[in-house]
Amino acid sequence: VPFKEFAQTLEKIEDLSGKKKIDELGQFFTKVLDFSPEDLTACVYMSVNQLGPSYEEDLRIKGDLGTVAQQSRQNQKTLIQPKPLTIPIVFNKLVKIAKINGKEATTTKISEIKGLLSSCQGIEARFLVRMLAGKMRIGLGEQSVLSALGHALTLAKLAETNKKVSGDKLDAMKDTNVKRVKTAYCECPNYDLLSTRKRKNATDDNGVKVGVFLFDLLYFNGKPLVREPLRKRRELLRSNFKKIDGSFYFATSVDTMDTDEINSFFDEAIQNKCEGLMIKTLDTEATYEISRRSKSWLKMKKDYVDGIGDTLDLVVMGAYVGNGKRTGVYGGYLLGCYNPSTEEYESVCKIGTGFSDEDLAEQFKILQEKKIEKAPMYYQFDPTLKPDDIFAPHLVFEIKCADITISPRHKAASGLTEDGKGISLRFPRFLRIRDDKNADDATSSEQVLEMYRSQEIFANQKIEADDGEEDDDDVVGEDEEKDEEEEDLNKTNASEGSSKENPVEKKKSPVKQSPAKKDAEKSKSPLKSTPVEKKKTVASIFSSTKKSVKKEESPIKKKKKNEFSSDSDSEDSEDDAFAKKAQPKKKRSRVAIDSDSE
DNA sequence: GATGCCTGCCC
DNA sequence: ATTCTGC
DNA sequence: GCAGAATGGGCAGGCATC
User: Fold this and answer.
1) Residue A252 gets which letter from DSSP?
2) CB atoms inside a 10 Å sphere around CB A69
3) Which pLDDT value is given to residue A186?
4) What pLDDT does A199 receive?
5) Is residue A375's pLDDT more than 90?
6) For A125, how many CA atoms within 13 A lie in the half-sphere containing its CB?
7) CB-based contact A516:A306 (threshold 8 Å)
8) pLDDT at residue A576 above 80?
9) Phi and psi dihedrals of A539, rounded to 5?
10) Can you name the CATH fold of A212-301?
């Protein structure tokens, strides 16, 4: 397959929109299947800009690569002058470059890349460079590549059997195959992910206790359990594995249909320094299939509710030029808090999300007039954070975060901590510009430290929960049956948990809260977005004070934390309830909640 | 050998 | 991770 | 609602550089 053909396909895809992108790639794959099916693997990998799974360990793939490598080598001999590149040549070369390591690795890689580039013609170079940069940005990613593959396989199959189908019937067949491809993709272990991560000194004696918390079983004795409901998967997990104190546990969970119970379990989780809960249906839509997963797994964290959570007002010290769709505006900013005693601005975090396109355009305009040549003495930040543009202290952003942590790079409150370490934010996002604040009205270093400390305290004490109120909404499931309650408790520790799991796939599926975020913040109408149908939900939650639910996909661990909200003043209201839901399907069911914790 | 920058990965 | 946006 | 594409802190490992 000529590389040029591939590059041209990418170019077309870039300009098309919606499903047409998939159709275009599907046609390309169909052609590949027709003329050089042996190149399909490489084409698929290149479409997702990956070199494939850990080829060293995957014999099947390795075999393919061997063939590819051979072909490529043969071609190269006769390739005295620029000869048209082919998919195998390029793919093989990329793999080769990826494997180069050791001394002089960079130099060698560069020279190999130069060689590849000099063989490019026309648009080939453009896409080759993007591939090398890791950003294809053609608006088509993994999911679409899988769809295209499904389409191509459908057509190939039909051609093979000489059948002719079209219209709705054909579409239906495609859908079926797309689903098969995606399912296979989900069920097929990725050796790269499963392989043990390299750790030079993975000892356990560095004072940090590490434990594994199991919460699901996707394969057992060679059989995929992905299609089994969570209740069964969990039962197999619990009956076939044994807990080992100090290192191997089952995630703490509670089975319930009662939101109050969920809330109190959530409080307990927070107390134990967990980030929150993963709420899943036990029986209904409780399998691990991709298309439904998003509807039956919800993540519940304290910072998802508008008006609640840590909020800070920080000064924009500098900015970084934007890439891709942010070309021409800033892609992110360096923010700092103000230390009145030293009259310095200390970096707290960079920020790059939460902005609408309009926000970015407006900010770029505002900041042009605040640009200054170099960072003033009163700007404290690590050299590695040096912004492309630096501004006089002026603009103030209201930022929300999930946590406040000690940082190895940021300077906030570094003069106030015992060890001199600074403070930073975890998962910072932009909420809005604080027009009503001057730079020196920003959150102070002391306040930042205070927020950090109160988190610690909070996490270590018992929270009285409670609430009161209820809201209406209900949750619950109706159908599905029985309830039992069960729970295990283990609490323990804390260390960071880690986990990694879910080797099966990585996808993301957010349920975002409604887009009402900023508005809600301003208008405080937390419920507004929620009403969504509460019909069939998987689970709906709300609480009286904090908590909301978001959806997510892979559960995992968490880290610390707790709640609290302070802010330099913004109005946080706390109100109410919240409910989120997942999607309408019809039946409700009982849910199981795992504490995502470490 | 120590230090710094970059990459890949986890959230 | 979080968030926004086009489809 | 999905999929894609912007972007965060932090860690560990690997390579470059002093």
Assistant:
1) P
2) 17
3) 74
4) 55
5) yes
6) 8
7) yes
8) no
9) -170, 145
10) D-amino Acid Aminotransferase; Chain A, domain 1 (3.30.470)
Determine whether A127 is exposed, middle or buried from the number of CB atoms within 10 Å of its CB (0-12, 13-18, 19+). Answer: buried
For residues A516 and A394, the model is more confident at A394
Taking C1' of B9 and every protein CA, the nearest residue is A197
If phi > 0 it is left, if psi is from -120 to 50 it is alpha, else beta; for residue A250 that is beta
The pLDDT confidence band at residue A148, using thresholds 50, 70 and 90, is very high
Distance A205 CA to D2 C1' (A): 45
Q: Please give the structure tokens belonging to residue A86.
A: 């082919």
Question: What digits encode the pLDDT tens for the residues A236-279?
Answer: 999 999 999 888 889 999 999 998 999 999 988 888 888 889 88
Quickly count: other Cβ atoms within 10 Å of residue A356's Cβ: 10
| Domain A311-458 fold | OB fold (Dihydrolipoamide Acetyltransferase, E2P) (2.40.50)
The answer to whether the CB of A80 falls within 8 A of the CB of A36 is: no
Residue A170: other Cβ atoms inside 10 A:
15
Instruction: Give the residue with greater pLDDT, A173 vs A564.
Output: A173
Query: Does residue A107 reach within 7 angstroms of strand D, measured from its CB?
Result: yes
A424 Cβ within 7 A of any nucleic strand D atom = yes
* CA A332-A126-A31 angle, 5° bins: 120
Query: Of A566 and A269, which is predicted with more confidence?
Result: A269
Whether the per-residue pLDDT at A225 is higher than 60: the answer is yes
Amino acid at A26: G
Under DSSP, the state recorded for A324 is: G
> Strand C nucleotides below 7 A of a protein CB?
1-7
The terminus-to-terminus CA distance of chain A in angstroms comes to: 48
- The average pLDDT across A135-147 equals 94
Residue A52 has what pLDDT? 72
Distance, C-alpha A368 to centroid of its chain: 32
Q: What is the mean pLDDT of chain A?
A: 75
Weakest mean pLDDT among A60-64, A442-446, A570-574: A60-64
> Which amino acid makes up residue A340?
P
Rounded Cα gap, residues A280 and A596, in angstroms? 12
C-alpha separations of A131 from A42, A48, A69, A111 in Å: 13, 9, 19, 17
> Which contacts (CB < 8 Å, 24+ apart) does range A5-8 have?
A5/A31, A6/A43, A6/A46, A6/A87, A6/A127, A7/A122, A7/A123, A7/A124, A7/A126, A7/A127, A7/A128, A8/A123
Q: Which two tokens stand for residue A549?
A: 């639910």
Catalytic residues of A: 164
Q: pTM of the entire structure?
A: 0.79
Q: Which of residues 478-507 of A touch strand D (CB under 7 A)?
A: 507
**What is the distance in angstroms measured between the alpha-carbon CA of A110 and the sugar C1' of B6?**
15
Question: Which single residue is written with the structure tokens 């954070």?
Answer: A385
**Nucleotide whose C1' lies closest to the alpha carbon of residue A559:** B11
Distance CA A141, CA A13 (A): 11
Q: Quick one: what percent of chain A has pLDDT higher than 70?
A: 67
- For residue A255, give the amino acid letter: D
Q: CB of A102 under 7 A from strand D? A: yes
- pLDDT score recorded for residue A184: 84
